Amino acid sequence: MKNLIFLEGLPGSGKTTTAEALTRLLQEQQTDTRLHIEGDLNHPADYESVAYLTMDEWINFQKKYDLLDVLRFAEVFNDFVLVSYRQWQSKQNVPEAALAFLQARDIYELPFELHQSLIFKKWEAFVAQVLTTDTTYVFECCFLQNPLTIGLIKYDLPEETLRAYINRLVTIIAPLQPVLVYVDQPDVERSFRKALQERPTEWADGFVSYYTEQAYGVNRSLSGVEGTIAILQARQMLERQLLKTLPFRVEVFGNEDFSIDVRQKWLKQLIQSTVRSTSLSES
To answer: 4: which of 58, 66, 164, 176 is 20 to 30 A away, CA to CA?
Structure first.
């Protein structure tokens, strides 16, 4: 198999379940496969609950919380520091004020240009590392969803800016010859309302408030579940356009029926065709 497989799709499309099923099938074939889903605190190519601090902010932070062992969860560079604050919180009691300070400086709360530069560096380091291994990585949502969340939803940036972001990522990951599986739902409203019914209320409330209270939703006076669905429909339209421009293999899996049997059959065919095409290219 290829070294990198992306699973993309809207919330509620079934991409997490599909990513997990694909990983199991690969592992059954003795392929060294690692799955990283949304929210993974140890994601090798993305940041989850990581704060960016300037060196001055870091020095002052350490002075204020000098009795807490935060250094174990910090990565120090020449002029900035990255703090994995959720990992830190999982190991000891972190004062609410300290946590709020770090959350406000989360990498996904940074100005767009600074955010991009950190993401690019992370991806470059990941690709360099993967090229030395035979491990297959399955990533959920970090190639399209995360860039569009900050670029489209949070900052409502022009489409050409979003395309430039994705194109830069394409250039970085090109040596891995990735495969992208897009889990498609033709009826966005149906699949999202299904997700709202199945997931905790906290998730639903948080998702709706985030989507409608960022720049894209505010600029268009969108609110509530209906407003969120409208934003998701716009995001899906852009994602479908982007898929057509990608220079690597893209496969669209229609998951409107949420059928386990259909998904298993489709994934097995994907694996067989990918192995076959890889063997031909190496012969």
So the answer is: 164
